[in-house]
């Protein structure tokens, strides 16, 4: 179990309420949980993926957590805009945005 952090931008009250029921909201739109199991983290993400198509066009959610098996030791999942791809370059993880 490791610290999980989510940042939600321009999401509905439904999503904010759900995240607040599973994690501590430490700042507007920033949620964290110090000890969340991978199974619970995946269930939370599954709910967000299911609900996300009903969100505004400019909404986004980013989830990060420690993952020792990936370069940089940190895993990232994103929903929304702008779409971001994460690539490894010489052992570093870089964010690549697709031009619009």
Q: What string, H for helix and E for strand, traces the elements in order?
A: EHEEHEEEE
CA gyration radius, whole angstroms: 14 Å
Main beta sheet: 5 strands, antiparallel
Helix content: 10-25%
Within the CATH hierarchy, at the fold level, what is the topology? Alpha-Beta Plaits
* Outline: globular
CATH architecture: 2-Layer Sandwich
Number of helices: 2
Low-confidence stretches: none
What is the CATH first-level class name?
Alpha Beta
**DSSP, total strands:** 7
Category by helix and strand content: alpha+beta
Q: What strand order characterises the main sheet?
A: 2-3-1-4-5
Strand content: over 45%
Q: How far from one another are the termini?
A: 37 Å
Number of domains: 1
Average predicted confidence as pLDDT: 89
Account of the protein in words:
The protein is built from 2 helices and 7 strands. The protein is an alpha+beta fold and 100 residues long. The chain has a single domain, classed as Alpha-Beta Plaits. The strands form 2 sheets. The protein has a 5-stranded antiparallel β-sheet with strand order 2-3-1-4-5, with helices on one face. A two-stranded antiparallel ribbon has the order 6-7.
Keywords summarizing the entry:
100 residues; alpha+beta; Alpha-Beta Plaits; two-stranded antiparallel ribbon; 2 helices
Summarize the structure.
The protein has helices at 13-22, 38-51, and strands at residues 2-9, 24-27, 30-36, 60-66, 74-80, 84-89, 92-97. It is an alpha+beta fold and 100 residues long.
């Amino acid at each position: 179990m490791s610290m999980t952090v989510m940042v939600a931008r321009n999401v509905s009250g439904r999503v904010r309420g759900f995240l607040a029921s599973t994690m501590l909201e430490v700042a507007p739109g920033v949620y964290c949980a110090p000890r969340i199991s991978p199974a619970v983290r995946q269930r939370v993400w599954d709910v967000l993926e299911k609900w996300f198509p009903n969100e505004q066009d400019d909404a986004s959610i980013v989830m990060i957590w420690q993952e020792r098996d990936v370069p940089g030791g940190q895993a990232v999942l994103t929903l929304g805009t702008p779409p971001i791809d994460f690539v490894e370059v010489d052992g570093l993880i870089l964010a690549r945005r697709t031009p619009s």
